[in-house]
């Protein structure tokens, strides 16, 4: 079927807006309407594994990095994550108690496919999380899990990212369950929060006009720094990637705690600093990093929830308020402002949002 922009100016805008619906579809597929059963193939057995090795490129790599925090924190499972182009030539030893998990929107990325082939015959199992079920990566996996995002046209990945996160979080919950790492109450709690995601994502999308106002300021910048801690660190990396891909503004992300080890030298009044900081257990630390930025005249764009904004917005350049959410699910919700910020900045600069220069939707050659 032909895919059109459905009234939006760009495919990227349409795909951002579609997220509540497609995530709802992925949730219906894997979680159903009630209960805590996660519909996954029986071959997925986390009890026989010592380790998970996750490999991907680009945005899918940041989805893997997020999932590392989930698997380690909620399922107690060690995870190694790498970009495919490094992994495939490093000759990493893979034990037969490792599952190798490949994440790819297209399922055709050359480096990711080569990394998968490297793991065949070494890992206990080859898993993949893909958007295209007929793709090479899906076909060559033992188990391929669809993300059900629908066709994604914008070169900068948006809805595929949040659908990848949704499926990876469900996998981490299944691992926690199988490995006896989570009480039934906590599992019921998290699955019900997941079912509420479409509503929460719609509330996040309501901040569109506020994001657009911030973007006007960002469009002037030469460099933008993104900061986050814990689960917000991979999201900061994804936010910086989105901005550089489509607005051509130099952006880099750091784990907030690394600020002192280098990037703080770059801070002055010309460098906007985007801080992702929901009011979670690391919030106070993020706030003190923010203050270090502001003490050097850095312009902070704080993205937090109402409780966080109340405590920390005072000296920020701008604050965006996200709906309150269990911290475990925050990366899925905070992806929305990361995407909207990049989108509106690119529109303000007049770049080709859906077809940015030098980039391809799918990198099928090395
Ligand atoms: C390209 C695209 C990115 C994508 C990456 C990995 O760089 O422009 O949006 O994240 O490839 O693609 P994959 O299809 O493997 O997820």
Automatic annotation (TrEMBL):
Which organism is this entry from?
Litorivita pollutaquae
The UniProt entry's GO CC annotations, sorted and at most eight, read: cytosol
Q: Which residues form a coiled coil?
A: none
Q: How does it assemble?
A: Homodimer.
Keywords of the record: Aminotransferase, Cytoplasm, Glutamine amidotransferase, Repeat, Transferase
A Gene Ontology biological process in which this protein takes part is: fructose 6-phosphate metabolic process
The first-level EC class reads: transferase
- Recorded GO MF terms: carbohydrate derivative binding; glutamine-fructose-6-phosphate transaminase (isomerizing) activity
Q: What is its main location?
A: cytoplasm
Q: What is its EC number?
A: 2.6.1.16
Which locations, inside or outside the cell, does it occupy? Cytoplasm
Q: What are the boundaries of the signal sequence?
A: none
**Name of protein:** Glutamine--fructose-6-phosphate aminotransferase [isomerizing]
Stretch of the intact protein here: 241 to 606 of 606
């Amino acid at each position: 079927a032909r895919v059109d922009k459905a009234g939006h100016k760009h495919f990227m805008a349409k795909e951002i807006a579609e997220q509540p619906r497609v995530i709802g579809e992925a949730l219906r597929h894997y979680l159903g309407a009630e209960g805590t059963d996660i519909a996954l193939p029986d071959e997925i057995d986390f009890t026989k594994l010592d380790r998970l090795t996750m490999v991907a490129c680009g945005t899918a790599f940041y989805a893997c990095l997020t999932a590392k925090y989930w698997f380690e924190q909620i399922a107690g499972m060690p995870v190694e994550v790498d970009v495919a182009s490094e992994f495939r030539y490093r000759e990493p030893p893979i034990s037969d108690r490792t599952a190798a998990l490949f994440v790819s929107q297209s399922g055709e990325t050359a480096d990711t496919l080569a990394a998968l082939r490297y793991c065949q015959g070494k890992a206990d199992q080859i898993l993949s999380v893909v958007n295209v079920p007929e793709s090479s990566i899906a076909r060559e996996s033992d188990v391929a899990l669809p993300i059900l995002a629908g066709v994604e046209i914008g070169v900068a990945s948006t809805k595929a990212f949040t659908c990848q996160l949704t499926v990876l979080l469900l996998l981490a919950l299944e691992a926690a369950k199988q490995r006896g790492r989570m009480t039934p109450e906590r599992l019921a709690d998290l699955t019900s929060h997941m079912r509420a995601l479409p509503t929460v994502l719609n509330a996040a999308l309501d901040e569109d006009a506020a994001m657009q106002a911030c973007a006007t300021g960002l469009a002037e910048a030469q460099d933008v720094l993104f900061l986050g801690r814990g689960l917000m660190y991979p999201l900061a990396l994804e936010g910086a990637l989105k901005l550089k891909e489509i607005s051509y503004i130099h952006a880099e992300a750091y784990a907030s705690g690394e600020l002192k080890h280098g990037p703080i030298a770059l801070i002055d009044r010309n460098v906007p600093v985007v801080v992702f900081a929901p009011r979670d257990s690391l919030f106070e630390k993020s706030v003190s990093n923010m203050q270090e930025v502001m003490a050097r005249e850095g312009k902070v764009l704080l993205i937090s929830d109402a409780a966080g904004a109340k405590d920390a917005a005072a000296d920020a350049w701008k604050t965006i308020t996200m709906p309150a959410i269990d911290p475990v699910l925050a990366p899925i919700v905070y992806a929305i402002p990361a995407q909207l910020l990049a989108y509106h900045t690119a529109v303000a600069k007049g770049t080709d949002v859906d077809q940015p220069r030098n980039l391809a939707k799918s990198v099928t050659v090395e």
